[in-house]
Amino acid sequence: MAPGLIARLGGPTGVAAIVTAILILFGIGAVVVPALSDGGGEPSAAAAAAEPAPAAGTSEAATEAASSAPAPSTASTTGKASPTVNASFNSGYEDRVVQLVNGERRKAKCEAVRMHPQLRTAARAHSADMAARDFSRSQGSDGSSPQDRVSRAGYNGFSDELVAKDGDAGDVVKSWLRDNNSREILLDCATKSIGVGAAMRGKTPYWTVDTGRA
């Protein structure tokens, strides 16, 4: 457009107004007006607002914090351990039983038995079990038999077992000798070895005698 005509129309602004009026008649003024009125400058505030906001990203700090977060605890709860009693043994009682048994064996014309360390280990283990749990029987609290315990101790040639609760060495030997089955076990001439355990629970002894033929 000629400079003189532009000047007569009131400069660029006047020209824009006239062009806008013409374009409105054709329904496209809203598209052209911003570009003409702004003279090719920065987008208007309305145009900027119309643009979609950039997607929010996860910052490096947030990612690092999430990755370093401690995992939930998965610790399991365990039941209470079985109660135990620290066993003490009366070796004087144990040795006295062997002396008394050998005295009776001499009367029966049988050879004396000797205290065998492995049989003694088995006998003490069972006496400690009985003292800890206050029972008197040949089956252990773990279901073990006398043969099981003697085998664990490493002894071969097991013969039999006697158990009792309470009484000193003299009392328990007298009690066993009054019982026919127990008497036969103690006075069996084929028996070579013996193991005696006297575990104490307070002042109460828990007795085990294991006999063997080796």
From TrEMBL:
<feature type="region of interest" description="Disordered">
    <location>
        <begin position="127"/>
        <end position="153"/>
    </location>
</feature>
<keyword id="KW-0472">Membrane</keyword>
<keyword id="KW-1133">Transmembrane helix</keyword>
<dbReference type="Pfam" id="PF00188">
    <property type="entry name" value="CAP"/>
</dbReference>
<dbReference type="InterPro" id="IPR014044">
    <property type="entry name" value="CAP_dom"/>
</dbReference>
<protein>
    <recommendedName>
        <fullName>SCP domain-containing protein</fullName>
    </recommendedName>
</protein>
<feature type="domain" description="SCP">
    <location>
        <begin position="99"/>
        <end position="209"/>
    </location>
</feature>
<dbReference type="InterPro" id="IPR035940">
    <property type="entry name" value="CAP_sf"/>
</dbReference>
<feature type="region of interest" description="Disordered">
    <location>
        <begin position="41"/>
        <end position="88"/>
    </location>
</feature>
<feature type="transmembrane region" description="Helical">
    <location>
        <begin position="15"/>
        <end position="36"/>
    </location>
</feature>
<feature type="compositionally biased region" description="Polar residues">
    <location>
        <begin position="137"/>
        <end position="148"/>
    </location>
</feature>
<feature type="compositionally biased region" description="Low complexity">
    <location>
        <begin position="43"/>
        <end position="84"/>
    </location>
</feature>
<keyword id="KW-0812">Transmembrane</keyword>
